[in-house]
Design a protein that fits this description.
The chain has 418 residues and is of the alpha/beta class. It has 8 helices and 28 strands. The longest helix is centred in the C-terminal third of the chain and has 19 residues. A hairpin with a 2-residue loop joins strand 24 and strand 25. The protein is 19% helix and 32% strand. Helix 1 runs parallel beside helix 7 and helix 4 packs parallel to helix 7. Strands 16-13-17-21-20-18 form a 6-stranded mixed β-sheet, with helices on both faces. A 5-stranded mixed β-sheet has the order 8-5-7-6-9. It has a 5-stranded mixed beta barrel with strand order 22-25-24-26-28. The structure holds adenosine monophosphate and magnesium ion. The site of adenosine monophosphate has 20 residues, from helix 4.
């Protein structure tokens, strides 16, 4: 890896991230119905209100017995004195020489210390509430066999889920197991998305010659949802001061406004004029590729203070900037324990040449070969190439000061999925 120490006037990615992240914090807590809570972040610890399972219970359909009655004997005949279903509380006490018919999930009767499955007896599975008078145990089991002990999964008072955990399908299941139907979560941030540009048209509408369809609104909106935010998607705004102004004003109730486009040299001044009138905005040239131009600041919109991030209009730049600067703050507002994507080290399949001293985010696809990660580099890394995003599941980071990285060398890769 060849390194070059030439300084740059552009802002470092890390500095821009620190500045942006430091302005956001966890939002307030709300209660949502458990069934709607997937992908929210839990705002309070959940502590087990009782043991799970609550009582010692049977793992099999069969007969609850005393182990000493069946141990070391080839065949044992026991008197059957009752039945326990999965729904029943066991009231009967088991004495010597006795058995109780038991169903999977049924509470182990007092006095019993193992369960013999039907298959080990002369009795077939019996439907309904019937039970035989006697049962012959043909094959014994060990002490404690087929008993699921109380509290084996969760002990009463133990921590089930920590505040800050993302609610996944299994966590919804475990919360439900404790009878909890509403959960305290951090409310989702409302993120307004405004695509700008006279040339940009919503899919579904007719285009004039030279116009292109809006892809950014869709990539960025779904990336917001994936990160756990709620999207307020506005209509496309033309490149006029009035249109941009009224669009921004209508977003005053949001937790964040994302504008897309209008921050590169051509129309830079237009969005700058509007934003500077409304608050304090930094227009940064970030030392990265793709995604050099970025705007960040806070606006005062008729008494509401709202943060704004201006993403570049080129689709790859917009997405990469979203990943680096916006996704982490959505997770921060959601109170997540970890706001950054996972990184791995992976071997490159081609040389990378970094001529202009920028931090490069290279679209790669990751695979695993003989316990090593391989990063396959997409053949076109330009900032307008949507197919590179469809291809990639990772962004390989080529540091600013690396001029050449040879095929076979390792780079850090940000994983975009999972
Ligand atoms: P801008 O940052 O507005 O100068 O846009 C840079 C490039 O990205 C131009 O080629 C635009 O046409 C393109 N672009 C801007 N907005 C979008 C969008 N919403 N969807 C697709 N391409 C866009
Ligand atoms: Mg534009």
């Amino acid at each position: 890896m060849k390194r070059d120490k030439s300084p740059s006037e552009l802002l470092e990615v890390k500095k821009a991230q620190e500045t942006i992240f430091s302005n956001f914090s966890q939002l307030n807590s709300v209660e949502v119905p458990l069934i709607d809570s997937q992908n929210f972040v839990l705002s309070k610890d959940i502590v087990a209100p009782f043991h799970l399972p609550e009582k010692d219970n049977s793992a099999m359909d069969g007969f609850a017995v005393k182990h000493k009655d069946i141990a070391d004997k080839k065949v044992t005949e026991l008197k059957v004195i009752g039945r326990v279903g999965a729904e029943n509380k066991s009231e009967t006490y088991l004495n010597n020489g006795q058995a109780i018919r038991i169903m999977t999930g049924g509470e182990i009767p007092k006095g019993a210390d193992c369960v013999v499955p039907f298959e080990n007896t002369n009795s077939g599975p019996i439907r309904g509430f019937e039970y035989p008078n006697k049962v012959i145990i043909n094959i014994p089991v060990n002490l404690g066999d087929n008993i699921r002990k109380a509290g084996l999964d969760y002990k009463k008072g133990s921590l089930v889920l920590k505040a800050g955990s993302l609610l996944t399908p299994p966590s919804l299941g475990v919360i439900a197991s404790f009878g909890i139907s509403n959960v305290p979560v951090i409310r989702k941030p409302i993120i307004s998305v405004i695509s700008t540009g006279n040339e940009v048209v919503m899919p579904g509408y007719d285009r004039k010659p030279g116009q292109i369809y809006d892809s950014n609104s869709f990539t960025i909106s779904s990336a917001i949802k994936e990160a756990g935010g709620e999207v307020n998607l506005l209509n496309i705004v033309g490149d006029t001061k009035e249109d941009i102004e009224s669009a921004i004003l209508s977003c005053r109730n949001s937790d964040l406004i994302i504008s897309i486009g209008g921050v590169s040299k051509g129309d830079f001044d237009l969005i700058k004029d509007v934003l500077l009138e409304k608050g304090e905005i930094n227009f940064w040239g970030i030392n990265m590729k793709p995604g050099k131009p970025l705007a960040f600041g806070s606006l005062n919109l008729e008494g509401y203070n709202v943060f704004q991030i201006g993403l570049p209009g080129n689709p790859v730049s917009a997405y990469v900037c979203f990943e680096l600067f916006v996704r982490p703050i959505i997770l921060k507002m959601l109170g997540a324990n970890n706001i950054m994507r996972k990184k791995i080290k992976a071997k490159l399949t081609k040389d990378i040449v970094n001529n202009d001293g920028k931090r490069m985010y290279i679209r790669v696809k990751i695979s695993e070969e003989s316990n090593e990660f391989i990063a396959e580099i997409y053949n076109n890394q330009n900032s307008n190439i949507l197919s590179s995003l469809v291809f990639a599941d990772g962004l390989a980071i080529c540091p600013e000061d690396c001029k050449v990285i040879k095929s076979g060398e390792e780079l850090e890769v940000i994983l975009l999925r999972g």
